[in-house]
Amino acid sequence: MTAFQEETATDEEIAAEAALYTPFTDAVRALVDVTIRTEVDPDEIRAAQVEIEAIVERLRKKQIPGSYGVRFRRDGTRGRNWGNTVMGLRNPIAPPLHIVNDGQGQAWSDFHLGAPYEGPPGLVHGGVVALVLDQVLGHAVSTSGRPGMTGTLTITYRQGTPLGDLRCEAWVDRREGIKTWGKGRILNAEGELTAEAEGIFILPRWARDLDALRAAAEATEAG
Amino acid sequence: MTAFQEETATDEEIAAEAALYTPFTDAVRALVDVTIRTEVDPDEIRAAQVEIEAIVERLRKKQIPGSYGVRFRRDGTRGRNWGNTVMGLRNPIAPPLHIVNDGQGQAWSDFHLGAPYEGPPGLVHGGVVALVLDQVLGHAVSTSGRPGMTGTLTITYRQGTPLGDLRCEAWVDRREGIKTWGKGRILNAEGELTAEAEGIFILPRWARDLDALRAAAEATEAG
User: Fold this and answer.
1) CB contact (8 A) between residue B48 and residue A63
2) Dihedral angle sign, alpha carbons of residues A138, A154, A109, B85
3) DSSP 3-state helix, strand, coil percentages of chain A (rounded to 5)?
């Protein structure tokens, strides 16, 4: 299992990597899309397969043993989650979502979902709706200054979510002890509500210990 | 928007298509995985990108205008959902899941999730857990003889779900009017529970009309 890793790259190195891998991953995203949609002759499919297998073999010559993980800086600032299914710059499965937040518990993202995200004909897969809401709710909660692991997530489907341009909004609803309630919704291109979510996020044990240490330190200072 | 389409291919044609597209899509799945994990030199990444872009251009010469949709047979038997995000034979995003069912409301799947499905380091993305559960619950409900659209879906996360070999099980819990309750769970390679789900599936209006028509026909026959 890949553990949390320390980020060893400088800002310049990370920027150079992003410039290299962004267009590369976009090319693979386009290939994913056309793999579903192409109608060229069987011989052309077989020829493309042989070429893709050869590219895979070359790229596998040097690779990370497991998954990408998340690379954190020693100063505690949020690290790189470039392998993430929803946001990962290097993950062709990720649309990817670019999530904006106000640091006060609100987060939102405008994004586009095409053919690879289909469930019912012409509609976004209900599970993909849940996947996006989980990520944006988690982002709202974690950037509000209080990290949380998803405890429960409830999705209410109001109507089909059409493939195309979409928006997801999420916010921190309330807090109680180690629990934070996040809420969110998906809007279609006309701004109509298609799905809603409520999630309960639990403060991880390591953060609780940190909280206890801080409280003890403050009590000592006050004393 | 892609509508439901009629299946025009014969069984033999579908088998030939499956034999063509299965290894092709598997090659693209391997490329998705290595796109995240490769550490070869930048020049090799750039060369691969140029080749992939050329393949995409060739495959795009003839393609379906929108998404794949679902192709149904005129006799009403379930059609091909080869573009589906979770099960699609032609969708490189799909692991794909092969779901087994007993036709009585139970469904299950043994599957493997690698690097592209990562959320927290080494763990399956919480939203991917929801995506898999949504598909398997929906499958259990629809193959029980009563189709349903997901109304609500609640996921309870018990512990992190490790990347690797996993199992998902789902079953119909109960029915009441137009609602069917499905339940399900994810087990890790040691058989330990990692997440549970409950979903409420609503009988679509067209199926209700069908039910009403059948009841009327039966009443007429009985009379």
Assistant:
1) no
2) positive
3) 40, 30, 35
Q: Could you read off the pLDDT of B76-89 as tens digits, one per residue?
A: 666 789 999 999 99
Domain ranges of chain A: 1-96, 98-208
Q: Are A108 and A99 in contact (CB under 8 A)?
A: yes
Could you tell me which residues are beta bridge partners of residue B157?
B195
Q: Cβ separation of A20 and B84 shorter than 8 Å?
A: no
State the residue for tokens 């949380």.
A148
Per the listing, tokens 């979770």 go with B86
Mark the ranges of chain B whose per-residue pLDDT is less than 50.
1, 223
Q: Which CATH fold topology does A98-208 show? A: Thiol Ester Dehydrase; Chain A (3.10.129)
Write the residue in A27, A35, A60 that is nearest to B25 by C-beta: A35
B-contacting residues in A 184-213 (Cβ below 8 Å): none
Q: Residue B117 is encoded by which pair of tokens?
A: 């499905």
CB B167 within 8 A of CB A175: no
Q: Which residue has the tokens 């409520």?
A: A198
Question: Token pair 């800086």 is at which residue?
Answer: A73
For residue B152, give every residue at least 6 positions away whose Cβ sits within 8 Å of its Cβ, in sequence order, or none: A154, A155, A156, A157, B199, B200
Residue B191 tokens read as: 């058989």
Residue with tokens 């990108």: B49
Helix, strand, or coil here: A6?
strand
- Please state the separation of Cα A144 from the chain's center in Å: 17
Q: Under DSSP, is residue A212 helix (H, G, I), strand (E, B) or coil? A: helix
The pLDDT value recorded for residue A1 is: 44
A116 conformational bin, left if phi > 0, alpha if psi -120 to 50, beta if neither: alpha
Give the model's pLDDT for residue B8: 81
pLDDT value at position B145? Answer: 83
Strands B149-157 and B106-113, bridge-based pairing = unpaired
Q: Which residues pair with B167 in a beta bridge?
A: B110, B187
Its ipTM equals 0.92
Structure tokens at A148: 């949380």
A42 upstream amide cis, omega within 30 of 0: no
Do B20 and A45 lie within an 8 Å CB cutoff? yes
Residues 6+ apart with CB under 8 A from B21: A45, B82, B89, B90
Q: Scanning the structure block, which residue is given the tokens 């267009």?
A: A23
Q: Which range is least confidently modeled, A39-43, A119-123, A134-138, A208-212?
A: A208-212
